[in-house]
Amino acid sequence: MDATEGLEISQGESFIDVKSFFESAPPLKNSDSITQKVKEFIYQNSQFSGNAKSVGVVCVTSGGTTVPLEQRCVRYIDNFSSGHRGAASTEYFVKSGYAVIFVHRRGSCQPYCRYLPEDSFLEFFEVLNDSEIQVCHPHATVVKKAIKEYHSAVNGGFLLKLPFTTIFEYLQIIQVVATSLSCLGPRGMFYLAAAVSDFYVPWESMAKHKIQSAAGPLDMRLTQVPKMLRILRTDWAPSAFCVSFKLETDSEILLQKAESALRKYQMHVVVANELATYKREVIAVTLDGKISIRKQSEDADVEDQLIKLLVEKHNNYIECCGMGEIIT
Ligand code: 9Z3
Q1: Residue nearest to atom 21 of ligand 1 (CA)
Q2: What residues does the DNA/pantothenate metabolism flavoprotein C-terminal domain cover (predicted)?
Q3: Rounded to an integer, what distance in angstroms lies between the CA atom of residue 155 and that of residue 164?
Q4: I want to staple 189 with a disulfide (CB 3.0 to 4.6 A). Which of 53, 58, 210, 316 is the partner?
């Protein structure tokens, strides 16, 4: 696929920035096989009436993108994100009947693995005899639950996992998913929890080999990553329901930045979270107002309540689109 396919109606600078980003990005490895997997997954989950398999298809993004500093990369800039939010949200979306395309950072937290013991893999198995091993007793219940839920999601065809590392891979995968998901109209959803780099080094101006310290202090100019949210809404998947996240460390500016993103990129919901409290509290910002969501108890996930709210908002959106109302 031409990387700039479907961008014709975007105007001005953002179009040029996006075009040059894709033209200069190293081509996505296995692009054809990723595209085929995505299309098949969407096709298999596209029957929404009668014996519907799923109620909709959501692309959940999770983990941080990296910005390589060298083409043969030794060093890179990273973004803060463990992938816990995306992994937990994926589980709650599947539970709510959605099929999930989980676009995640390699090595980040995975759905159904959140409760597994953090200590070494070797510590929760014991050897029974020469040919058998078993999970040690204290971990058996959580491991059994995780295996069952994971297999039910994957074997049922409700979970497709696509890994990324760099900002180049991430944005190319999002383009493939978005242009494929557009065929579902309002039934498609984006839940963009990944921490995406704001600045990058264009491939052609990047050092080919490891940068040498003998050359003295390093001066480096970073280019702004084009705002893909706008293109996603206007060109790639204009009818999909879009939820993005806004992370700030300064509570004074958080809501104002979230509201600005809502309008600027025509998001349906912007989930505002502050670094110090993001695990226990988020605020869903919409054109109708703000809803604060807090963890119900120590063991609960804030994502449980958040996904319930988003599913409700997505259903209203589908209904309104069906009645011919245009919702932005
Ligand atoms: C978030 O704000 C996520 O909630 C977290 C989740 C990254 C805080 P963890 O993976 O953390 O559970 O450890 N994601 C979006 C961050 C982001 O880069 N947002 C951009 C911005 O704030 C907009 S796309 O400007």
Answers
A1: 246
A2: 58-106, 189-279
A3: 23
A4: 58
The answer to whether 302 and 295 have CB atoms below 8 angstroms apart is yes
Distances (CA, A) of 50 to 46, 55, 62, 276, 311: 12, 11, 32, 45, 20
How many other CB atoms are there within 10 angstroms of residue 59's CB atom? Answer: 27
Note the pTM of the prediction, 2 decimals: 0.93
Rounded Cα distance between 77 and 67, Å, is 5
Q: Are 57 and 177 in contact (CB under 8 A)?
A: no
Taking only the tens place, the pLDDT of each residue in 202-244 is 999 999 999 999 889 999 899 999 999 999 999 999 999 999 9
pLDDT in tens, 294-317: 998 999 999 999 999 999 999 999
**Token output for 97:** 């009947």
What is the ipTM score, two decimals?
Answer: 0.96
DSSP string, 218-286: PP---EEPP-HHHHIIIII-TTSEEEEEEEES-HHHHHHHHHHHHHHTT-SEEEEEETTTTTTEEEEEE
Residue nearest to atom 16 of ligand 1 (CA): 195
Query: What is the DSSP pairing of strand 133-135 with strand 159-164?
Result: unpaired
Please tell me the residue having the least CA distance from ligand 1 atom 3.
193
> Which residue from 247, 262, 267 has its CB within 8 A of the most atoms of ligand 1, so it is best to mutate?
247
* Distances from the Cα of 83 to the Cα of 117, 163, 175, 309, angstroms: 17, 12, 21, 21
Span from the CA of 287 to the centroid of ligand 1 (angstroms): 21
Indicate left, alpha or beta for 67 from its phi (over 0: left) and psi (-120 to 50: alpha): beta
Ligand 1 probe mutation, 91, 191, 245, most atoms within 8 A of CB = 245
Question: What's the gap in Å between 271 CA and the centre of ligand 1?
Answer: 9
Q: Which of 147, 153, 21, 36 has its CA nearest to residue 92?
A: 153
